[in-house]
Amino acid sequence: MTARAALRTLAWLVLAYLALPLVIVVGASLTSSEFLTFPPHGLTLHWYVVAMRDPSYMSAFVTSTLLAAAATLIAVFMAVSASLALTRYEVPGRGLIEAVLMSPLVLPHLVLGAAILQYGSAIGMVRSFPALLVGHVVIIFPFVMRSVLPQLMGGLRSLEEASRDLGAGAVATFFLVTLPQIRGGVVSGAVLAFITSWINVEMSIFNATPELTTIPVKLFNYVQYTIDPTIAAVSALSILGAGLCIVALDLLFGLDVLPKSN
Fold it and tell me: pTM for the full model?
């Protein structure tokens, strides 16, 4: 009992340590001073008002949300399709193909961003939302595939064959048998993909413009000239948005669908 209590105490301490930066960011956003400080000097929502009245911040929020959502949907579709192809068919060079598809996990995003910028310049698609979208899909695709691929192995193949033997077509088998079994991998991969797209700076900065920019790029450019509590307020709003997404995920799918470690 003592060991369990000690382990539980350690777990709460670790969680508190991980949450401490969030507490500091939120606290700094409430200060009444003109500079970042913690503990806050007084309590005010002035900096939130400043951020929300700034059209550039609101535009960046909208761009980040649309970009992350669109990139995640495309990445999920592509990753599920690629995973099915690699696990259900005899594909020559399967290991090499899988390694290439997973390579954005180890390649620096700055290198990928520069490469996509050069390729986009060659085909006339640069510094636009489609250019941003292509780059984000490239870097988040492996997160979804890495979560979905293991789910398609094991006994799932026999369930699919049983469904086909009972008269279900390929589409019906996928939606009634395959998708419910891999839902945990799809949801967890989509969450990781969305977060990765939302916080990305290295890839986004190559195709961002003053009119088309994401929140991370906006903050990156802002802190080079000014450091005030507006930055903390925008960060706190991002934390709030992430919390609302988690609540929505729990209501729609249930967080128990996420894969559990053995």
Answer: 0.81
